[in-house]
Amino acid sequence: MIAVIGGSGLTRLANLEITRRKIVRTPFGEPSGPLTFGHIGSQEAVFLARHGYGHTLAPHEINYRANLWALHAQEVTRVIAVATVGGIAPSLGAGMIAIPDQIIDYTWGRPWTYFEGAEQPVTHIDFTYPYDEETRRMAIAAARDAGVPVVDGGTYAAVQGPRLETKAEIDRLEGDGATMVGMTGMPEAALARELGLKYAALAVVVNPAAGRGASARSVSIDDIGRVIEETMGGIRLIVAKLVERHAGS
Questions:
Q1: What does pTM read for this prediction?
Q2: How many whole angstroms separate alpha carbon 231 and alpha carbon 239?
Q3: Are 99 and 199 in contact (CB under 8 A)?
Q4: How confident is the model over 64-101, as pLDDT tens digits?
Q5: In a 3-state reduction of DSSP, which class is residue 126?
Q6: Angle between the N-to-C axes of helices 133-146 and 221-247, in degrees from 0 to 180, rounded to the nearest 10
Q7: Is the peptide bond before 59 cis (omega within 30 degrees of 0)?
């Protein structure tokens, strides 16, 4: 089964025909909310709102371990994560959708692994390419099928939040090679890899990053909300086509 994790602006999937909801208990505590099962077209999928269904969980408060564990326990094999980002690269304007292929982790203090504790052996995972390439390619093809333009590739800088960044911080991230910035990409991607889940992200650019373009002096929260509303229709179209492609894979 395929799972969709919704970020800011996507607390539900309007095109998901809901069949049931399930509260899942995990060894790592409570997930962000119940899992919502249903069908998109004739294919089954499960949805989870990363920030909670009332959007009440800040990025650093999300129980990423419980979220991924809950999905894995339902025999999910593929995860598509939707996230909002600020565009650092000039080519990533507000309203664009990117499918990143790299990530840099600047977060701190978040439980980031399942492999810890006295009973756990030391375990290392390969994270050279943090996003599953097969799933990325499926997402790109799904966007083409849906007629929604996307940017193939990019480096996601995962920052702590919940505040937005300073211009100097964005300058630093750009110097490090980041092309977009968000707050929820890690440890989500690494936890998915530890569980063997095929994970990729749809990154919705909702504003130029601090100090860039229209955000040269300040970031407009009102503009972010408007862009989210305008862009999520395209995300739903991509997700629907991606669910179809997963069923045939």
A1: 0.93
A2: 13
A3: no
A4: 999 999 999 999 999 999 999 999 999 999 999 999 99
A5: coil
A6: 100
A7: no
Query: Residues 60, 161: contact at Cβ < 8 Å?
Result: yes
Which two structure tokens, joined as six digits, stand for 16? 């998901």
Q: Left, alpha or beta for 109 (phi > 0: left; psi -120 to 50: alpha)? A: left
- Under the banding of pLDDT at 50, 70 and 90, the label for residue 11 is low
Nearest alpha carbon to residue 157 among 218, 87, 211:
87
- The answer to whether residues 245 and 141 touch, using CB atoms and an 8 Å cutoff, is yes
Give the dihedral sign, CA 215/221/222/228.
positive
What pLDDT digit, counting tens, does each position of 172-203 carry? 999 999 999 999 999 999 999 999 999 999 99
Burial of 193 (0-12, 13-18, 19+ CB in 10 A): buried
In SS3 terms, 198-249 reads as EEEEEEEEEEECCCCHHHCCCCCHHHHHHHHHHHHHHHHHHHHHHHHHHHCC
243 or 105: which carries more pLDDT confidence?
105
